[in-house]
Amino acid sequence: MTADAIPDFPFDRATALEPPPELAELRERCPVAHVRLPSGDVATVVTRYDDARTVIADPRFTRDLAREGAARISTTEDGGLFNRPRPDAENMTEGAGHQRWRRLLSRSFTIRKMEAWRPRVQQMTDELVDAMVAKGSPANLSSQLALPLPVRVICALVGAPSTDQDKFAHWSRVMLTLTRYTQSDVDGAYRDFDAYVSDLVDRRRADPGDDLLSELIAITDAEDGRLSKAELIVTVRGILLAGHETTSNMIAIMAAMLLSERERFEAVIDDPALIPGTVEEVLRLDTTLAAIGGIPRFATEDVQLGETHVPSGTTLIPNLPSANRDPRKFPDPDRFDPRREYNQHLTFGAGPHFCLGQPLARLELQVVLGTLARRLPTLNLRDAPQDLRLRTGGMSGGLEDVWVTW
To answer: Which pTM value belongs to this model?
Structure first.
């Protein structure tokens, strides 16, 4: 394959909610294909379900791209979030160190513990919807509900003031840059975010509460090897970053996806029992949440993916939106079916790095959908679906402002 034949990635699309047609084409004729990233480097995109699941779950594929030969993802000098060296986190990202860290955190994100948060999440959602309704139609659902709710939830969980939501939003946008920010901007965001978390830790240590941060501080201060001080900072930063960015985007995406074909929303109004299944189909069918489609991996040895030989040193991008529409896994994959059985989509990953926070994300999406269906049954998009715009320039993707009427 010549350099000129390698397509630029991410692919363009006709409208924000439609997947790029190239994904389906690659999935059928070239499921492990070279693409050119915004950095100019070449990586390999994986589009079939079984192959993508192997890449995200097999330990032969590492998430550490801060190594020689790895493709740079973004246009910054360090190559972006996944390529940036992480000396403070190197013992918690792979292998036994990751298992140690995951065992420590997983106790706080069990389904039972998250369900205990449902009344509180419901209260926060009602307050935000009250304010949105009081302000009147039309409303920017993105800024009035989708962004502030996950920030309030994760701040309450961690023990951070939700009034700092604008700081989190700015730092996450910069740290997840693809083409929008400079290396100086990124370095400044890391520096400011770490300083913020360090100060927050000091304040919580002096005045502990019934929150995750206070619990983690006590573990760190025990100096028993379960969590170092440097790892504590990285952990809290990661929770604040991941805990609001993806869920905020998904709430807006969910509203747009359901209201763009309104019979989907009306089905939930008529039968609230469809809420969990509807949320799962939104998670499966969305193609906008991540600009490149998934967290990249680096092959540490030669691997066979289907009929394709992947040599050691290859940077791979498991495209989860494509994998989630693979007809080999999902019957009639492009059909929205809230009653779909065995909906084992890969949106939250798989294997050792399966998303710890997925019970909380699912809970928030279910609460928001149930609240909107119950309280605003006449909800509609203000703009035509084809006029919705993708958020560009960042790895997290998502939609620009989603305006609604009722």
So the answer is: 0.95
